[in-house]
Write a structure and sequence with these properties.
Blueprint: H1 5-19, H2 22-25, E1 31-33, E2 36-37, H3 38-55, H4 62-70, H5 89-105, H6 109-116, H7 131-150
Antiparallel strand pairs: 1-2
Helix pairs in contact: 1-4, 3-4, 3-7, 4-6, 4-7, 5-6, 6-7
């Protein structure tokens, strides 16, 4: 899965303001799966989502797709430490990430749906309601499985 030079440039132009934010940079301090940081995880999900959209001509809004994918795990805590109230992380982090993204970046309702529904079907009531949300949900499942199985 390689992005073309023009795709890299477009993706970088969409995400530059977000990636340069110090709170987003803080995601490099948290482990997601195995040895993978949360920052590296969301970057992989974003790149795969962008690739899927372009290769399969799905017609997603690139900004909603890219920002939603990059902020889908913007919860800003170590989910491995359950004493901080994160014991039900799988069920709650998507809402935390959505609220953080709303507060810090003023995201719209479609981007909010991408973030809050990425754990479907675990969060059965948080159904992906737009094509961007479906793409990110699928890309996240693939990347998470790959990271969990191969990065131990």
């Amino acid at each position: 899965m390689r992005l073309r030079a023009e795709e890299e440039a477009r993706l970088n132009s969409i995400l530059a303001p977000i990636k340069n934010d110090e709170r987003v940079q803080d995601m490099k301090n948290y482990t997601q799966h195995g040895r993978i940081t949360t920052y590296d995880h969301v970057e992989s999900v974003t790149r795969l989502s962008y690739w899927i959209n372009n290769r399969f001509h799905i017609g997603c809004n690139e900004k909603v797709l890219s920002i939603g994918a990059f902020l889908h795990d913007y919860y800003l805590y170590d989910w491995h430490e359950t004493d901080g109230g994160h014991g039900l992380h799988g069920f709650s982090h998507s809402n935390t990430a959505k609220e953080n993204a709303k507060a810090h970046f003023g995201i719209g309702v479609h981007t909010q749906n991408v973030i809050e529904s990425h754990m479907w079907p675990l969060n059965i009531t948080k159904l992906p309601r737009c094509r961007e949300a479906w793409v990110v949900c699928l890309a996240d499942k693939y990347i998470s499985t790959k990271e969990t199985l191969l990065c131990r």
